[in-house]
Amino acid sequence: MPFIQVRGVEHYYEWIRTPVISEKKPVLVFIHGWAGSGRYWKTTAQALTNFFDCVLYDLRGFGRSRLPKQPTGLDYELETYAEDLAALLDALGLERVYLNAHSMGASVATLFLNRYPERVEKAILTCSGIFEYDEKAFKAFHKWGSQVVRFRPNWLVKIPLLARLFMARFLKQAIATSARQAFLEDFIIADYEAALGTIFTSVSEKAAKVMPQAFAQLQVPTLLVSGEYDKIIPAEMGRRAAALNEKVEFAIIPNTAHFPMLEDADTYLQKVREFLGVSS
User: Fold this and answer.
1) Least C-beta-crowded within 10 Å: which of 70, 152, 213, 247?
2) What is the pTM of this model?
3) H helices within 116-259, ranges in order?
4) Which of helix, strand or coil describes residue 253?
5) Is the dihedral of CA 262, 266, 271, 272 positive or negative?
């Protein structure tokens, strides 16, 4: 498996492109969400290889990007993950790219866009948005999240139908059994400190203040895609974020939830291709 050193951590990455490289194509980088990995982006990337060379990677502490035993000195702030992305692009020799990021990864991407606008041609933010701070609700969520992250024995992957139950809250339409199982596996192997740390940084009073400003400041042409029935980041949150900036185009994928790229791949890809200016 290909790994690359990024700020003291071995990051897993993977190129998805046509077998025969006849011409240099623009690069589209995919960023996954909390407790996931780049592998759920693979079918989307494969559908775009006529137009882009695609890069999937696993965020620090998630998927196959395992944390070393010795301290890295890096925290789990979203801004720090944005700097990880900058370092990854440097390590891969990529000066300017397209981005497609999902959920927590979309928050990372939004912060990256404002720090390095010259490095991105266009961006797609899938299932992202802004929310208001609610101290009581946030404390309850953090308590629940801490418990969920603490209890993740490896034998959970062997329980029949658990993957279906695990993914039920995230979906409106069914996805492939293998994809559901992959999500459960990624959740179980996510590093404890990374999984817990990003719960506290992505759903926080700071994020509630910073993210509206970040959306308002975007200078890179951006498509924000929401799932109509998303319970994790409701479409209205995406609508409010897009309304802050005329450079942000908003689209809702009907009858989908938190993974519209898997629940209705055809409609999702149509929206993406239209925004990127490539034919089907």
Assistant:
1) 70
2) 0.96
3) 135-150, 162-167, 177-189, 192-202, 205-217, 235-242
4) strand
5) positive
Tell the residue number behind the tokens 């929401």, with chain if given: 226
Alpha helices in the chain (DSSP H): 42-46, 78-92, 104-115, 135-150, 162-167, 177-189, 192-202, 205-217, 235-242, 260-263, 265-276
CA distances from 1 to 13, 15, 57, 64, 170 (A): 8, 11, 12, 9, 29
Residue with tokens 């992250």: 149
The CA distance from 128 to 137, in Å, is 19
CA distances from 168 to 20, 128, 161, 165, 272 (A): 39, 19, 11, 5, 25
Find all residues with CB under 8 Å of 74, minimum gap 6, and list them. Answer: 7, 8, 9, 60, 80, 84
Kindly report, residue by residue over 93-145, the tens digit of the pLDDT: 999 999 999 999 999 999 999 999 999 999 999 999 999 988 898 899 899 88
pLDDT on residue 207: 95
Output the six-digit token pair for 55: 């890069």
Give which of 10, 4, 222 is closest to 106, Cα–Cα. Answer: 222
pLDDT tens string 24-39: 899 999 999 999 999 9
Instruction: Give the N- to C-terminal CA distance of the chain in Å, as an integer.
Output: 31
Strand partners, 126: 102, 225
